[in-house]
Design brief:
This protein has 903 residues and is mainly beta. 10% of the residues lie in helices and 42% in strands. The chain has nine helices and 71 strands. Strand 67 and strand 68 form a beta hairpin. The protein is extended. 32% of the residues are buried.
Length: 903
């Protein structure tokens, strides 16, 4: 019996010991678990631990990290931070209100609209990688509130990006201050501030220092006022010259880059002769405040450009008297000095003079070209022979006519050469010794009243002859001067064999209408400005052009000689055959049609798309947009040296209402769904299209808005550089890869689309600038594809390859995110994004927060962006390491005790 009670007592003692050990192990586990800092998630739609940041802070303790998921948070909320924590945006810079920091904390990756203020023990805080919109960081009222770090933030539209008052030793680095009233304002502090690596752009004042001091180096300034010192404000503007890449990419870190928006700042206008990226002289901002190493872009003074003398002579030898026309071919010359007989004296300062050698001999001609940087000379020899006795020299006889000899300014005068035996001519219409023309007939306009002597010099190999006349130009009369038209035209040929094609072009002045009679039969043959007539019967024809305006008429005639057809020439003559293809012949306005020239034996071509007799293009293949409904007759004229040929086709353009009514489309498809609209994209690949029309005016910002919201494009815009009038832009959203690209870009493709702006060749750099596209992306697609919002880009296809363009988030609503992108031009595009892995969230949420009672004050967590920081909370499947060790120890003790039990 005693043995039995002894065994029972032993068993009871073992059980009691196990209970005590188990209780101790549980206590150790609780202590170990509560000592680890936690990560808390805030999500406004419910998946996180809390729906507001303030609620999370109310339950947080020192060392916690609060992750803010994308969502809608109050932008006017002032968040009170009473614990030392890290508050960080998960992605996409979630937008929040402002913060009052009472403890040493860290704010990062957020969009802040109400600013960050420091108070009480809010020292040694870090404000990093945030976007401040219309607000900033404010610290002060006590030196204790110094020692802050403000780095890598973007401040836009802030009254003051960073401001201090009665503060000390703050570090402001790597930030961008743009369009702020003041970038940084230091006031009444103890100094010790360091400002480096920042960009201040388009601010009223970059940095203002009032009764405080700071070290400011390696910053980029481009503002109206870059640095303003008030009330004993002082600054150290450079560090020692140190090798390393500076803020503008130079090889040394020293001082700052001092620029202005107008481009006339110190660093923008001073030279760097030795190429070290630092100006050769110091920049004195104030009497005692000097940047001894101001940063500049390496540049030197350009070498002076000297003239290069060169000329040619119309002839280099001949019998006396020898008339020679000298033509200047010099480069970089402002004036000229000619010495025709090598006697060291200037014979002419005219650029292209005519000189007559009367005496036989060999002459050295010297031209000296001159500009402000120096001179250059060239010589040539002219040989003048004795006049041959037996040869009868026929000299030219100068003669000309003028349609008027007097009149009021502006006075247009038609000069016509009637000289005999002349091979060339030189007109001087204002008696200044300078040749004004060498044409047989031309019009000169006198704009200044006076009496002018007109001189015509007729030239042939035997000599010259001159004639003069007087033009009287009167003051402009007060009453309205009736301006008569001046008839003039040109012909590409004046003779040839039948059939002879002649291109007539009207060159008349001040004419409002015209009438052509090309065969002198008294019947009008055309009223167009330019046209082609084919003569099929040999003979001599007189062409008469009669032009008119409200003040009267004017006429001009010319002769056309049509010869018999030459048999051997006609057998070998190959005329062109006009032919072309249109990819579509009907559709709704605006209708884009691709025209392709299929002509044979043509050397050139003229397209007339609206049957007005005026050539609209000479391209072989082009896209033309018919913007208004109607029936258009398209004419292609094929041309070669032997003649012309034409082909006509009809394009029918209906109104959008007629087109949509006949196709029975409605809703989103009414914007052109299922049709290519005449673009190069196959119609079967077009999911939907939409068009927009606006008037394009020079110097104005143009925006084509797609109000029916049928495609992913919201608007297309640019700045116009010329007047165009009513212009159409078409967006085609595609079913799959565009037929105009070789392959799709990498990543998840959201949509592919084409943008067509105006007619072919309009949307170029000579017509537009600053082109931009605004597009939208469905939020459901981003969620379904698990796409990282920050990875969304716009891809443009150009030169047979894709180019990624930065997409800036510009807004959102319940269903879409809206992005804007600056583009080099308009063509084929694709919207893509990159998928991301599902983010791992902590499963121990409210329970861990409610049961935690102890805290390890030395354990600080500052984010989730580095491996070292993740390592501070080492866990296995959500169980702390301390818990595992405690359980293993408990199991080992139990095994030892169990082995001692009586068997």
């Amino acid at each position: 019996m005693l043995k039995y009670f002894t065994g029972v007592l032993l068993v009871w003692q073992i059980k009691r010991g196990l209970s005590i050990l188990f209780t101790v192990a549980l206590a150790l586990q609780a202590i170990a678990g509560s000592a680890a800092a936690a990560t808390i998630y805030v999500d406004d739609d419910g998946p996180g631990n809390y729906t507001t940041i303030q609620a999370a802070l109310n339950d947080a303790v020192d060392g916690d990290t609060i992750i803010v998921q994308p969502g809608a948070y109050p932008n006017d909320e002032r968040i009170q931070v009473n614990v030392s924590v890290t508050i960080k945006g998960a992605s996409g810079y979630p937008s929040v209100g402002g913060f009052n920091l009472y403890m040493s904390s860290r704010i990062e990756a957020l969009t802040i609209t109400k600013g960050v203020d420091f108070d009480r023990a809010g020292t040694e805080c870090t404000i990093r990688n945030n976007r401040f919109e219309g607000c900033g960081v404010s610290m002060g009222n006590n030196y204790l509130y110094g020692n802050q770090i403000v780095m890598n933030n973007l401040f836009t539209g802030s009254p003051a990006g960073v401001s201090t008052f009665d503060s000390i030793d703050n570090k402001i680095t790597g930030n961008t201050f743009q369009n702020c009233y003041i970038g940084i304002a230091f006031g009444y502090g103890g100094g010790g501030h360091v400002v480096t690596g920042n960009t201040f752009k388009d601010c009223d004042v970059g940095i203002r220092i009032t009764d405080d001091s700071a070290t400011i180096y390696n910053n980029y300034f481009s503002n109206d006022i870059n640095l303003k010192l008030e009330s004993d404000g002082n600054a150290q503007l450079n560090t020692s010259k140190t090798a390393g890449k500076n803020i503008i990419g130079g090889p040394y870190i020293g001082g700052n880059f001092w620029g202005t928006p107008a481009g006339d700042g110190f660093s923008q206008t001073h030279l760097d002769q030795n190429g070290d990226g630092i100006a050769e002289e110091a920049y004195k901002v104030d009497g005692n405040v000097i940047d001894y190493f101001p940063l500049v872009t390496p540049r030197t003074e350009p070498a002076p450009v000297l003239p290069v003398a060169n000329f040619k002579a119309s002839t280099t030898s001949g019998s006396a008297p020898l008339s020679v026309l000298f033509t200047d071919l010099s480069q970089n010359a402002d004036s000229w000095s000619w010495d025709f007989d090598n006697n060291g004296q200037t014979d002419s300062a005219v650029q292209n003079p005519v000189y007559v050698y009367e005496v036989p001999g060999t002459y050295t001609v010297k031209l000296t070209a001159i500009n402000p940087n120096g001179t250059s000379s060239k010589t040539a020899a002219i040989t003048v022979l004795e006049k041959e006795k037996e040869e009868v020299e026929i000299l030219p006889v100068a003669d000309f006519s003028m349609n008027v000899t007097s009149g009021n300014v502006p006075l247009s005068v038609l000069f016509t050469d009637h000289s005999q035996d002349a091979t060339s001519r030189s007109w001087d219409v204002n008696n200044d010794g300078t040749r004004d023309s060498s044409k047989e007939s031309f019009v000169h306009v006198y704009t200044v009243p006076g009496t002018y002597t007109v001189k015509l010099t007729a030239i042939n190999p035997n000599g010259t002859s001159s004639k003069t006349a007087t033009i009287t130009v009167l003051e402009k009369e007060e009453e309205e001067v009736e301006i008569l038209p001046v008839a003039d035209f040109s012909m590409n040929v004046t003779s040839g064999n039948v059939p002879l094609s002649v291109l007539f072009t009207d060159l008349s002045q001040d004419a409002t209408s015209r009438s052509w009679d090309v065969n002198n039969d008294g019947t009008r043959d055309s009223s167009k400005e330019s046209f082609v007539h084919v003569y099929t019967v040999p003979g001599t024809y007189t062409v008469n052009l009669r032009v008119s305006n409200q003040n009267g008429t004017s006429s001009k005639t010319a002769a056309i000689t049509v010869l018999e057809k030459e048999k051997e020439e006609n057998e070998n003559r190959i005329l062109p055959v006009a032919d072309f293809r249109a990819n579509i012949t009907s559709g709704s306005a605006p209708l884009s049609v691709l025209f392709t020239d299929l002509s044979q034996d043509a050397t050139s071509r003229n397209w007339d798309f609206n049957n007005d007799g005026i050539s609209d293009s000479t391209d072989e293949s082009l896209v033309y947009v018919f913007t208004a409904p109607g029936t258009y007759s398209v004419n292609l004229t094929a041309v070669n040296v032997n003649g012309t040929a034409s082909k006509h086709a009809t394009i029918t353009v209906s109104s959008a209402e007629e087109h949509y009514s006949s196709s029975g489309s409605s809703g989103g498809s009414s914007s052109g769904g299922g049709g290519g609209g005449g673009s190069p994209e196959p119609a079967k690949n077009v999911e939907v299209k939409e068009l927009s029309q606006v008037f394009v005016t020079n110097g104005k910002e143009v925006k084509f808005e797609f109000t029916k919201k049928a495609t992913c494009v919201v608007y297309v815009g640019f700045d116009a550089k010329k007047n165009v009038g009513k212009t159409t832009t078409i967006v085609e959203q595609l079913k799959s890869k565009s037929a105009l690209v070789s392959e799709l870009p990498s990543g998840e493709v959201y949509k592919s689309f084409n943008v067509w702006v105006g007619n072919s060749g309009f949307a170029t750099s000579k017509n537009i600038e600053n082109p931009v596209i605004c597009f939208k992306v469905e939020k459901t697609w981003i969620q379904d594809k698990k796409v990282d919002q920050a990875s969304i880009v716009l891809n443009r296809y150009s030169d047979k390859k894709w180019e990624q363009l930065l997409a800036n988030l510009s807004g959102e609503d319940a269903n879409y995110l809206y992005f804007t992108t600056d583009v080099p031009g308009f063509s084929s595009f694709a919207i893509t994004g990159t998928s991301k892995g599902a983010s791992e969230k902590v499963t121990e949420q409210s329970t861990a927060l409610e049961t935690r009672s102890l805290h390890n004050e030395g354990n600080e967590s500052i984010g989730l962006d580095t491996g070292a920081e993740q390592g501070e909370n080492t866990k296995f499947s959500g169980i702390p390491v301390y818990n595992i060790i405690g359980i293993l120890c408990l199991g080992l003790i139990c095994a030892i005790i169990y082995s001692q039990l009586p068997k």
